[in-house]
Design a protein that fits this description.
Largest sheet: none
Helix content: 55-70%
Number of strands: 0
Number of helices: 7
Length: 162
């Protein structure tokens, strides 16, 4: 036996929460790259380094996984945007918040695609996506409303500006 061969180290078993996170991360990549319709649970499992049945231990369906991802990413965006900036309401704060939104989009391209780009044909997933979009747009409109002197709210429409 040569000195360069080593026994394989046993793979560490992931905890339930680590496995769920791996599924969510893999789902995010696969859904964003392939779209909801073309993504398969088998492909997501392979990307996560697990078997397909393990996904069903955490999510009852592909729909439930996609909906969980949409909710998670919308919440992450809202938390990101809702943090304290130390600026008084007005044009400076509005500009910072809007710029921050686009910075988040640039640093989260998979989330952007899932939340705003893809249009899933599954009615429940589409409804979850549209709800997330509506809340996100309303949040952006509220930023713009902080600075009426920017004269931007007129183009957003009455269903967006609250």
């Amino acid at each position: 036996m040569s000195g360069t061969s080593r026994a394989k180290e046993p793979r560490r078993r992931l905890s339930g929460s680590e496995r769920r996170r791996a599924i969510l991360d893999a789902g995010m990549r696969v859904f964003a790259e392939r779209g909801y319709e073309r993504a398969s649970v088998r492909e997501i499992a392979r990307s996560a380094g697990i078997t397909t049945p393990v996904i069903y231990d955490h999510f009852s369906s592909k729909r439930e996984l996609q909906t969980a991802l949409l909710e998670e990413q919308e919440a992450a965006l809202r938390i990101h945007q809702g943090r304290e900036r130390g600026l008084e309401p007005g044009p400076d704060l509005a500009r910072v918040l809007i710029d921050d939104f686009f910075s988040w989009v640039e640093s989260h391209p998979y989330a952007w695609r899932m939340l705003f780009h893809d249009t899933p044909s599954d009615p429940q997933v589409l409804a979850a996506q549209r709800d997330a979009q509506r809340r996100s747009v309303a949040q952006i409109a509220s930023f713009v409303a902080l600075a009426p002197e920017l004269h931007v709210t007129a183009g957003l429409g009455p269903d967006v500006v609250e």
